[in-house]
Amino acid sequence: MEKLIAVGLAIAVAGGLGAAWRVQAPSQHDLEAKAQEAPVLTRIQSAVASSPSFIADMVAARNAKGDDVRFLFGTSELEYVCDDTAHPTRFFDEHDYGFSLMCVGNAGCQSLWQAMELAALEEEGAVSGNRIALMLGTQWFMEDGLTESAFAKRFSEETFATVMANPRLSDATKQKIYDRCVAMGADPQQLDELKNPSLVSSINRAISDLPASVERSEAIMDDVNEQSRPFEEATADKSDAITDWEELDELVVEEGKRSCTNNDLGIYDEYYTDIFVPQDKENREKDEPQCTEWSEKEFGDFEIFLDVCRDLGIKPLVVLQPAKGAYYDNTPYDKESREIFYNKIRSMIDEADAELLDLTPYEYDMYYLRDVMHPEWKSWVIVNQKLCELYGDSND
Questions:
Q1: Does residue 358 belong to any structural domain of this protein?
Q2: With 0-12 CB in 10 A as exposed, 13-18 as middle and 19+ as buried, what is 279?
Q3: Left (φ > 0), alpha (ψ -120 to 50) or beta: where does 221 sit?
Q4: Is the Cβ–Cβ distance between 332 and 291 less than 8 Å?
């Protein structure tokens, strides 16, 4: 009886508070309607990335109309807007390859976030087939790996709760995710409530986090109002697939040349002048000792990502991104140090029976990076060609 009374009171309080906020924020029905109305959003970031259910609604709306939505997970290399013809957020929007690409992730989204986002999207039914692709950032593994501030900025209660509800994840994998969230500063009591599917816990969460939920729903609606498009409009704008990859490579090299006019390293002009030159000078003056140990915490988080893929029966394509040799050779992460890291990642990928696309041989070549860490131009041509092989009509 006491439990029933508690439930009744919680519902009453939640209903009253909800009424007060409802006029100020989009409802769940509003968001679902928006996902149906304008489901094409290539760059999934910030607020939208915090809601796997909303992403799944968009994917379902598109697939119901004959689309085939696939995922590229990554970090800050996916968030910037540029004029690069081959950047995947532009390339697969403009050309018809028999599938569409959703690019998920932004700055601060490292291995732990990728693992959780994949598990949540799979639980929501958004992941087609048994393949996904991940852009793995070398910088994630420098110093101590993921920071508490970056984790807190990207942590999503909905994502965590959905991960814990995924029956295909092993208990061991769920425990690893839980433990790492606690280690990164998450409140164990909050996590325990998110793991609990009971009605009382759900209502308590709704009451305690109502303002934050309102803010998030508003942010989601703002994102989609600004960037998403109706399916018919998006597909009408697509042109035929480019089949001459060498011609595309030549085109992006010309784009790179126009962006990199004040240096012979293939770094775009503003970055070279404002960041590279002063930072490289400082690095040379410091002359710090070589780094021989990379972040074991981040290696552990990447292992969790591979565990998630194994549990879900997914074979990931991991794109190992290069770092600019001309810059990092004058830091503790010189060529020999980077090879320690690369070999460790290669070994982990091999042991997990994942697939590797290794871009590290291009660390000293022009037009593979736009600065010292973000792939650009020629790198994207290679990645796009591989994504076409991965997600083409004859593959899962």
A1: no
A2: middle
A3: alpha
A4: yes
Query: Could you tell me which residues are beta bridge partners of residue 131?
Result: 315
3-class DSSP state for residue 38?
Answer: coil
* 326 lies in some domain: no
State if pTM tops 0.85: yes
Asked whether the beta carbons of 42 and 103 are under 8 A apart, the reply is: yes
Range of the domain at 9: 2-256+295-320+375-391
Of the candidates 134, 69, 71, the residue with the CA atom closest to the CA atom of residue 103: 71
Q: What are phi and psi of 42, to 5 degrees?
A: -75, -40
Strand-pair partners of 73: 104, 134
Domain tally for the chain? 1
Cβ neighbours for 88, distance < 8 A, ≥ 6 positions apart:
72, 78, 101, 103, 380, 383, 384, 387
Condensed to tens digits (0 to 9), the pLDDT of residues 160-203 reads: 999 999 999 999 999 999 999 999 999 999 999 998 876 454 54
Q: Which residues of the chain fall below pLDDT 70?
A: 1-24, 81-82, 198-212, 393-396
